[in-house]
């Protein structure tokens, strides 16, 4: 398989990455005044919408390495936005919950849906559905290949 692409015609993977990075850069710029990064925002989003969550499970949902999530959680705890307590019978498991300050900050944060609207607004729904289906299939294939190794 030829992994190169003509410089004038980047691959679907290159465009996917470019789109992701552009959206994340806009997200980070929007969150900067609140002293938050995009991954911290995703943790807060999850806790605000799903509720208290075991840290291990949150890592799976957000597809974050354990060490990466530990650093993010430690930062959010230090900022007073998240509370980390022992979960049930297994004292090694940590339950994450938004603090009162975390809930207040969440309500103050801007709605980031403008990023999605800027990127995909006006694009035909059928084209978006095809794009999602193609990327979902490609992702599943790559995960399956990784599991085989």
UniProtKB/TrEMBL annotation:
Keyword annotations for this protein, in alphabetical order, are:
DNA-binding, Transcription, Transcription regulation
Q: Which residues form the HTH marR-type domain?
A: 1-149
Q: Which GO terms describe its molecular function?
A: DNA binding; DNA-binding transcription factor activity
Question: Please, which domain of life does this record's source organism belong to?
Answer: Bacteria
Tagged with keyword DNA-binding: yes
Annotated GO biological processes are: response to stress
Q: Name one Pfam family in it.
A: MarR_2
> Which InterPro entries does the record associate with it?
HTH_MarR-typ, MarR/SlyA-like, Tscrpt_reg_MarR-type_CS, WH-like_DNA-bd_sf, WH_DNA-bd_sf
Q: What is this protein called?
A: DNA-binding MarR family transcriptional regulator
């Amino acid at each position: 398989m030829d992994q190169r692409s003509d410089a004038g015609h980047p691959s679907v993977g290159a465009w996917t990455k470019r789109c992701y990075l552009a959206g994340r850069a806009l997200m980070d710029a929007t969150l900067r005044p609140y002293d938050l990064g995009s991954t911290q925002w995703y943790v807060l989003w999850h806790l605000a919408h799903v509720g208290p969550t075991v840290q291990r499970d949150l890592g799976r949902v957000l597809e974050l390495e354990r060490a990466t999530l530990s650093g993010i959680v430690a930062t959010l705890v230090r900022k007073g936005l998240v509370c980390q307590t022992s979960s049930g019978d297994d004292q090694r498991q940590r339950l994450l919950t938004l603090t009162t300050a975390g809930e207040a900050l969440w309500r103050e944060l801007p709605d980031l849906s403008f990023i999605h609207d800027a990127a995909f607004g006006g694009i035909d729904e059928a084209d978006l559905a095809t794009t999602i289906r193609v990327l979902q299939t490609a992702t599943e294939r790559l995960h399956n290949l990784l599991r085989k190794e």
